[in-house]
Amino acid sequence: MNIFDLGAMSTGLANVLTFWNIMFLIVGVIGGLIVGITPGLGPTLAVALLIPVTFGMPTETAMSILMAVYVGGMSGGFLTAILMRIPGTPASMATVLDGFPMAQQGKAGQAIGNSIVANFVGTIISAFCLMLCAPLLATIAVKFHFSEYTAVCLFALTAVAAVTGTSTTRGMVSAIIGMLLACIGLSSVDGLPRFDFGNTDLSGGISLVPALIGLFAISQMMKDSERQENSKVEMTAEVSKVRTIPEWSDIKGNAWNYLRSGLIGVWIGILPALGGGPAGLIAYAQARNASKTPERFGHGAVEGVVASETANNATIGGGLIPALTLGIPGDPTSAVLLGGLMVHGLQPGPQLFRDTPEVLYGIYFSLFFSSLIMAVVLFASVRWLVKVVEIPRYYLQPLLVIVCSIGAYSLDNRLFDIGVMFAFGLIGYLLERCKYPLPPLLLGLILGPLVEGNLRKMLAQDGSLMPLVTKPIALTFMILAVVSIIWAARLRRMTKGA
Amino acid sequence: MLRSKCEPAADSVVDTPDSSLPENEFAVDRWMGVALLVIGALMFRETFSFRTFDWDPLGMAFWPRLLIAALSIISAWHIVVGNVGDAMEPITKRAITLFVGCLAYLGGLAYLGYFIATPVMILVAGLWLRPFTARAAALSVVNAAFGSALVYLIFEFGMSVELPRGIWG
Hints:
The structure holds two protein chains of two kinds. By secondary structure, chain A is mainly alpha-helical. Chain A has helices spanning 6-16, 19-37, 43-54, 59-75, 77-84, 93-104, 108-141, 146-163, 168-182, 200-203, 208-224, 248-253, 255-270, 276-290, 302-326, 332-343, 350-355, 357-385, 393-412, 415-433, 439-462, 467-470, 472-497; strands at residues 185-186, 193-194.
């Protein structure tokens, strides 16, 4: 396998730079920004909603628009965080700490301008890391056998189960439910139906995309329906009257902050389940520690806004590194993106680098160009985009239900898939109400067949579980799985103590 | 546990039995444990109907049984403990009503088809989500007509998806 295939790189670049592809990137970024700005909606929901629409598109175009929506969705959250003290997405929660005080002090333009640059730089840093690290990791992953795959999947599942939510055992229950649901339908190893209860639709199994849309979109709408829409949106500053182009001194003064926060974001993105929110908070804490005037943080320090926004966007590339090389998503949006790849007949993993490198380079370049388009669109139209928060939910919500339903139906022209989507919506809603985290369920749904297949093949070949502890790579991941559980338990005890 | 009003959840972040849980607090993990044990038992019984082969001693029931065993152990632990994390948030009537509405829409798509079920769904949902006024009703009608047409154009023409026609064919 060629680590940096220049031929594939140029094909990928050429695919991204076609007229229609750039148009799709622009539309995707704007759509993502609108979703990101709207509190309650987020990039996961946006990408899940879009997958059925991309079904008929060429793979390169489909992945470009999905990446554009991801970048837009992740970036848009800062606007409401600064202007309304409501993070548009959980990833922007650290931005509130200094962004909102800046807006109160009449520096909304400075906060917005620097956030746009931070989002751009964070995405670019993560795209470079993705481009450099993913092929290297893929060359290692080629050497993975049944035991290594089983161990790495078990690590991902335990790490996600341990870290998400407020209890490790609840996370584990969620992951096991996901893996059990993945057992419905044809067994990937035997090719025979299981748990179909005599229903021909069920014997075909549960399609991933309707399940994803149900878990993340329908359950969110069920939650949103609980609040009556009668309060008027109040903003701290009139965006049309502020200058959003940042000062050069702000950009220059934050050069190290961009780099440090970007690398923190990439690293947090690689780790399963943490995502943009924790990345922003950790980068914010590091920026505060590194500052000569830490007392300004929390009272309107631009460095805090820059750190948070750079780090949360840098998780995009970070999350894609394990997703593309091992097929193990770092966060829910990467998991949904994997669903998008699978819909187009591509199996994430090292074979993707060998068989279709041009698609991967298309993804990398889409990330670069999406971040550029995002910055241009935001600087040019932030005053209009912010009006999105004023669109009443009672117009938007029924339309979203229809788009989800028809989107799920369009995959196979089956009404059964709409039923699956609603069923997963109810499961997602009930689990969230009971404080059982959804990311482990999603990961269980995706990784369940992979763990089963590799575990059974390993047992058939070696006759025991010993390869999990006798092979170095497998042993490393098994140790990491145990460490992640202990670390999460300690972290919870410390949080409880604090 | 069906309440009409949303209440904030407790802020406790714990992974051990919560001794501070009020006596009247709903022990979500206990009930979830019972429900999962019942579901696990039903699924376990179903695994005996799977086909088996002499050349594959593990068989395709091996993996689901392993998962059911793990789920049962954790569920049993939850039943003993009662609650291992944050308190449950109430399930609201509005959310369940929306879900029932979605199921009605699915039935509508199957029997009445897209062109009748979709505008009705958007209209009814739009009116349900806001206080009723004559202006709200008029705007909801416009939203229903515009939304249905837009989705139809995108999927039927843009993506060549034949939308459900119902019993009218």
